[in-house]
Every structure is written in structure tokens, then in C-alpha cells.
UniProtKB/TrEMBL annotation:
Stretches that traverse the bilayer: 12-31
Name used for this protein in its record: FAD dependent oxidoreductase domain-containing protein
Keyword terms of this UniProt record: FAD, Flavoprotein, Membrane, Oxidoreductase, Transmembrane, Transmembrane helix
The protein's required cofactors: FAD
Domain FAD dependent oxidoreductase, residue spans: 10-375
Domain of life: Eukaryota
UniProt family annotation: Belongs to the DAMOX/DASOX family.
InterPro entries documented for this protein: D-amino_acid_oxidase_CS (IPR006181), DAO (IPR023209), FAD-dep_OxRdtase (IPR006076)
Amino acid sequence: MSNTQDKKHIVIIGSGVIGLTIAQVVTTRFPDKYRVTIVARDTPEDLTSQAFSSPWAVSAISLSIVCSLLTLKLKGANWSPFSVEMPDHKTFRRELETFNTFWDMEHTGLTYNVPYTIYFPEAQGLENVWFKALVRDFRVLSPEELPSGFTGGVKFSTITVNPIKYLPWLKNELLNRGVVFVKRQIHTIGEAADIAGPEGIIFNATGLGARSLIGVEDKLVYPIRGQTILVEAPAVKECVALPIGTGENPDGKATYIIPRPSQGHVIIGGTYQKNNWDTSVNFETAREIWDRAVEFLPALKSDKSRIISHNVGLRPAREGGPRIELQKVRLPFVSDLMHGVKGTISEERELPIIHAYGFGGTGYQASWGSAEEAVSLLESI
């Protein structure tokens, strides 16, 4: 016990896929250097919580933070490109590392390798899209393979993740490594500092919560509303999507179909509505989602298909992209927003905070690469 207490203390705020993966990387890379505590209001057992983001991920276009209250349904998360334009170097590295990690995990039953087709209104340059170097079995579709209204398309093999199995697996791995989970809502950086102790280090993986976490209060954080339908459709074995792109997407539509091979469940979507905090189901939108999906995959209309639930959630995005950086905050922490309440740490020092949030729809597909990048910042402390 004394040896454990002598280790420098890392406190991770948030137990979504980013927070859990950071803990996994820390305990793998530094098995004997730190003791790790994860503090969050919702943990992987709280899969029905309206506030827990990661169980409700649906793809690269994942739904996060606020979920439907209808009932718990199983979701899937996949790798999908948001644009044919090459992302920045850091984004590419995060996603390449994550893709390769998930691809190699298929034997565990936590991930699946499935075919993926994307249709484009324009065919120019598809043979040289940037993600050709990331995915497997890439090829450009022939004109005979294209539906009406589209002049181009690509097909490749991608990964999907089963969050309902994956998150508990991550937690169990961490428990076996001695990671402690504390079920508690953190309102201020000062509270986290109290838990971390005199020489502690904080990882902030709070998603949309970074907007209201006192001491961070990042107003660049915003939601992207997503609405989907969970369907039992065992005949559907492949992902199909239209590109969202990186523009404003004024109509807020996002078409994608993502199967869960293990149970015959399929997620169809959806919407991509920036700065929309509405978490109620819009059934007119649901009908539009269904009509768009069956246009591309008539197998959804099989007699064996049935709609299980309608779901709404918010993707935790950030203007300018995700924030992965080291910040140092002066202690003791005092905020007028907490009526002068101070933490228990009274001595003056700098508290290192490593931020990792604002991934929008790419939480799963960038999780391992982002965690590695965030943990590498420990070396500069």
C-alpha cells in the first residue's frame, strides 16, 4: 500500500472512450510509475444514462453526451472519413493508429471488420483519396455499381466497434491494473486537484462538459445533434454512407448505415446539426432517415427487419478541432463562480492539466491515437 501511495497520482475526469483509453495507455506505458483514478458522474455500468456519451456512439458520426430516454439499445461505432480532403498530419496519425489497433482486435469479438461503400455526387479524384492509405481492400466502384444520381463511389474494409462490450472491457482491464473509479460529478478544477493531491496531474476528458467545467470553461465547445434509428436487420452486412464533408451542411442531413455483425442490429442515420441542443426525437426526421436508408439498402425492408428504437444525442465538438494540450493552473484554485469556495490544497503550486476533448464525431475512430498523443505530454511535466 505504501508503494502505491508513493506513486504520483493521475486523475482522469471523464470515463468515456477517450478517458478510458488514456488510462489504458498510461498503465501500459508506465505500469509502475503512476497510480490512476478515473472520476466521472457516469461510468461504463451506466449505459442507460442520458448524460453518458460513449455507449451511444454510432460511428465516426458518433452520437455523444445526451441520449434518448426511450430504452437502452446497443450501438456501434465505426471508422468513416468525413471528407475526401486530406486532414492535418496530427489527425491522420491519430486515426491511422486507432484504425490499426481496432483492426487487430477483431479476434476479441470487440471489433468487426466489415465492407464499407461510400457514394459521391462527383467522381473526380476518388482513386487518390487520402484514406486509401489507411483502410483495407480499397477500390473505386465501376459505373455499373452506382445508384442513380451518383457518378462516383469507393468500397473498402473498415472497422466497427461494439461499445456495449468494449467500454466494460476497457474498465475491467483497468480494474485489473489497479485503476480506481470514483463515481462523482466534478464541477471545478479545484475539486479535481483535491482528489489528485499535492503533486497530482489531471487529464480532462470531459467532452461537452469542458464548456461548463469551472477553471476550463471552453466556449469553443459546441454540440452536433444526431438522430438515428436502431433496426434489427440481419440481412444487412455492410456499411453504406454518403459523405458529410467539412462544410456547414445546412440541411443537417447525414446518411449512413452501420451493421453490428454480432447481433444483426443496424444503426441508420441521421442528422448532423451544429449547435442544436435538442435531445427529443423528431419523427418527421425519422421518416426521412428511413426513406433515405432503404433507397440505398432495400434489404432493410425485409420481413425480418424491425425498428427497435429512435435515438438522439449530441456529439461533443469544438471550433478549431480537438484540444490535446498541456495547461498549468495556479493553485490554490479560487473561483467567484463557486462563491469563494476553495479547495483543500492551500500551498501554492502549478497544477498540470492535460486536455483531451472536442472530438465531435471522431471519438472512437481517433481514441487510441489521441490517447497516445495526450499521454506523451506527461514527458514535458
